[in-house]
Design brief:
With 267 residues, this protein is mainly alpha-helical. The protein has ten helices and no strands.
Amino acid sequence: MRELIGAAVLAIYIVAFWQTGTDPVTLAMGLPDMARFLASMFPPHVFAWDQPYFYNQESEFQYILLAAMETFQMAVLGTVLAVVFGFVAAMFAARNITPNFWVYQGTRTLCDGFRGISEVVWALLFVSMVGLGPFTGVLALAVHNTGALGKYFSEAIEAIDEGILESVEAAGATRTQVFFHGIMPELGTLFMSYILYYFEHNLRQAMVLGIVGAGGIGIELLLAMKYFNFHKALSVILLMLVMVIITDRLSGMIRKRLVGGELVVVT
């Protein structure tokens, strides 16, 4: 039986390699082209402090900085909305605190639907509703991550010690009180880890969403590549990288404080 499973997995890999055109030889032959393309991006463009950016009142540097800030704000708002609605979904998608079968299954299915569609697709859908701009990105991030966080929060709740929930319920607590006084003190650290992870994820996705019309710094990268301004494209990429690194370091510091017990979750 083990040999049969191994053969099936190998066959799947072989078919996948064939149908996707995956070819290590083609990759190796394309490396010189990639090297020439990367070389054409150096040196990176230096954004001028005093040079106007097209018809905007801001200088080029100010405009790019505002675009980066817009991307960061999209990630913040998208994450906050996803956390709020994710907690609401989790209260109805956890089997141990939602006895009603249809409510439980319906909420789980809704979460699967939200997270099953990528942020880029959600952004394309929301463009037809609210038009181009960062609001589209906020909605796309919020909807997708509501499904993802609702799923992970609910699974964490289902794994909690039943004795904790029973003791809170025995005092006559409502579902909301059970959540804030029984679940949050126990799982607050884990929830915060999920939130920080998805904030980092949303920052990266917010950069990508700009390419499909959601504003932010992503549109600057798209325009730079479209007009073959590779020096500027490299500068935008480096700025994106700096934003991700800083966010990762700050998140790591918060996680360290959480694990060390220095940050207390208030209920």
